[in-house]
Amino acid sequence: MRAEPRILPLGDPEPEVREILAKTGLRDGTPLNIFSTLARHPRLLKRFNVFAGLFLTKGLLPARAREIVILRVAWNTGSVYEFGQHTIIGRESGLTEDEITRIAGPTDRDGWDPSERLLIAAADELCAYDRVSEPTWDRLAGQWSEQQLIELVMLVGSYRMVAGFLNSVGVQVDDGVPAWPDAVEPPAEPPAVPRGEIVRGYFEACNRGDPEGIARHFLDDAVVYDTNHEPIRGAAAIGAFWAKVRADWHGARWHVDTLVEGRDDAAIEWTMIGTLRGGPATVRGSEHYRFHGDRIAEIRQYWTLDRTNPSTGLVGYPYDSDPRFAEEAGGR
Prior knowledge:
Elements: H1 15-21, E1 26-27, E2 30-31, H2 33-38, H3 42-57, H4 63-77, H5 80-92, H6 97-103, H7 114-129, H8 134-141, H9 146-169, H10 195-208, H11 211-215, E3 218-226, E4 232-233, H12 235-248, E5 253-261, E6 265-276, E7 279-292, E8 295-303, H13 326-330
Parallel strand pairs: 3-8
Antiparallel strand pairs: 1-2, 3-4, 5-6, 6-7, 7-8
C-alpha cells in the first residue's frame, strides 16, 4: 500500500455530498476513507453505493460464502484496505480468525469444505484469467442457482475493481481496522516500473544504436548469456555489443513479439530484421530476464542463425552452480 494517498479524502463535503456519505458504511459515525475519497466524484459515489451495497445487503449468496470470496480477491490483488474491512465483516459472517488467516496465503485450501474450496478456486481463476474454467464452472453449477452464479462472477469483478481503485489511489486503512493477518507474509509490492516497460525501453535503445541508452537499462555488473557467443558482462559492454551488432547488420531492428512479466522477471519472444552478407535476414529468439530494482540484472537469450551451431545451451552459463539445474548437472 502507498505510504501517502494520491487523492485525499474529501474533508469538508457540501450538504448534498454529506447526505450521500450518510448512506455509506460508517465507522463510529464517520465515513470510511474509501467513501470519503469517492466523494470527490459525488455522482459516481452515489451510483457505486447502490451497486456495491447490493452484494452486502441484498445479495443471494450466503454471507459466509460472500466474505470468503471477497477476502480471497483482496489477497490476490494485494489490497490490504479491502482485506482489513472484510476481516471485520467476515468475522460478523461467521469466519474464524484461523479461516481468515488461511484465506491469505498461497493455494493452501486445507480445512475448507468442498463447496468453500470451490469458491476460492473460482476467485483465483477469475483474478488470474478473467474467466472460470469449465471444470470449476460445472461444479459450481451443481451447487448454486443461475442467479447466484451471476452474482458470484460479478462479486469477484466488483471487488477486483475496488481493489484497483484502492491500490492506485492509495486509500489509507481506517483507524482501528486490521491489516494482513500476523501469521502470513504480506503480498509483495508490485515493481515501481513495469518490467515490460524496461524491456521495451532497452529494445528501443538497441534500435537507435545507442550504447549509453542500452547500458542505462542494466546493472553495472549485469550479464547477458547467449547460445551463440560468450557471456557479455557489464552494462557498458552490453551497450557497446548491441550497438556494434546493429551496425554490422546494417541498421538491424528488433521487435518484441510477446512478453510475459512477473515481479522480478520476464520472458519475451522477439524478431530481428536486418541485412547480413549482402542480403535480408530475419532471426527469431526468446529471452528470459531477471531484474533488480528497475534495472536488468541478467538476460538468458536463445536463438539460432547458423546451422553449424544448433545448440540451445547457453555458452558460459554456470549450470552446475544454479540450483534450478542441480539435479540435471548431478546426473551428467
